[in-house]
Design brief:
mainly alpha; 2 domains; 20 helices; 72% helix
Amino acid sequence: MLFNSGQFFFFFIAVYLLYVKLPHRGQNILLLLASYIFYGAWDVRFLILIFISTVVDYSAGILIHEKQEANDIRASKRWMILSVVVNLGILGFFKYFNFFTESFADFINLFGWQVSSPVLQIILPAGISFYTFQTMSYSLDIYRGQLKPTRHFFDFALFVSFFPQLMAGPIERAKRLLPQIQKNRIISASNVTEGAWLILWGLFKKVYIADNLAPYAYWSTTLANGDTAGDLYLSGMAFVLQFYCDFSGYSDMARGLASMMGFKLSVNFNLPYFATNPSVFWQKWHITLSSWLRDYLYGPLLRSRLIDGNKTIALILTMAIAGFWHGADWRFILWGTLWGFTIYIYRLMIPYITKYKRRSQTTANILGVLGAITTLHLWMIVGQFFITPAVPVGFRSIMIILFDGSISSHTIIDLKTILFYAWPLILMQIAQFYTKNLNVIFSWPYPVRITIYGILLFLLMTRGAEGGAEFIYFQF
C-alpha cells in the first residue's frame, strides 16, 4: 500500500474519520490495527516478524530495568544482548543470509576448493531495516539508564508499528515517540495545515520529480559501456535529485500524516545539498539513521578495546556498516567505506580550510560555495556504486565522468528535461536555505501560498508520473 496510491488515500481517509471521533485510548487501538492492516497488506507473513520484535523488546525492556533495580547488572546485560541478537538475527537472516553464504563460498573457491553456497528464496520484509533499529534502540536506552520501560504493551506495539513511518522512517527514538502515544493528542489547525502541506510537498517530490527523473537516473546501468561523459554526468545528477526527492518525499509524507493526527515526527532531511562539507552532509541526510549510528555504533566502537579510541577506524567502520545497512551487496559496503575515507580526508583538511576562512568573509563565502559544489559532486560520483549493477561498472562510469570529457547530441536536450522537473525543488530549497526555515511557505502571504499549492497540484495532475512507483528505500 503505497503512500502515492489511491488505495492508501481511501485507507487513510477511513482511518482519519474514525480517529478524530475517538477518545485517546480508542485512537491508539485504531492506529495499532490500522498499522497492522497497512503492513499486512504487503504480505501478511511479515506481521509475524514485527510481532516477534515487539514481544521480545517489550519483555526485554521490563526485565532489563527490573534487573538493574535489583542491582543484577549481569542479568540486565544478558537481556539487553538478547534484544540485540534477536533483532539483528531477524535482520541478518532475511536480508543478509544469501550474501554471507555466497561471499564465504567465493572466498573458499579462491583456494581451489569448489564450494557451492546454499541460496534461499527469501522475501525481504518491507521496512525491516527501520523497525528493527527503532525497537532495538528502546532496549539499549533502557540498559543505559536513559529511558524507563512502558508497561502498556499496546502502546509499545504502536511505537514499533506506527504506519506513517514504519516502512522508511524516520527512525524514531522511544523517548520522543512513546510519550506522544501515551498522552492525549490535540489536533490543532496548525497540525492540519502543516500536515497537509507536507503531504502535498512530499507527494510532489515523489511523483512529479523523482518518478519522472527515474529513467534518466538509471542510464548509468546501461551507458557505461561507451556513451559520453555528458550523458553519464546528467544521469548522475538525475540520480542525485531522484534519490533525494524519493526518500525525503516519503519522510515529508510520513511527517504530514502524523501531524494530521497530532504527532510530531523527526525531521529526516535538512537541505543536505547545501552542506558545505562531507561531515555536515551526513548531519543533514537521513538524520535519524546518522544519529542512530553515532549513538549506538560509532560511540561504542570508539570506546571498545578493539578500536581503543581510534576515531579514524571507528569512522570508517561505521560508514562501511551504514553502507551495508542499505543492502546485501559489496557495492553498498564500498559506497559506505568511500564516504568514511572522504570524511576522514576532510577532517585532515579542516585546519587549512579554517585558516583561509579567517582571512575575510568573502573568502569564507567562496569556500562555502565551493565546498557545497564539491560535496554534491562527491555524492554523485560515489553514488555510482548505488545505481550501477556491479562494482566494475561503477568504476567504469566514474572514469568516464572524470576523464572522458565528451558530450552527445542529446545532452543539452536531456539537461533541459531534468531542469524542467527540478525547478520547483530548486526554488523552494533556495528560499528555505536563505530564510533558515524549512516551513518558510507559512511566512508568505496567503494568496502566494494558495498559488503555490495550485501550481503543485496542476503539475501533479498534468505531468506527474503514472503507475505509483515504489519508494527506493522500501528495498532496504
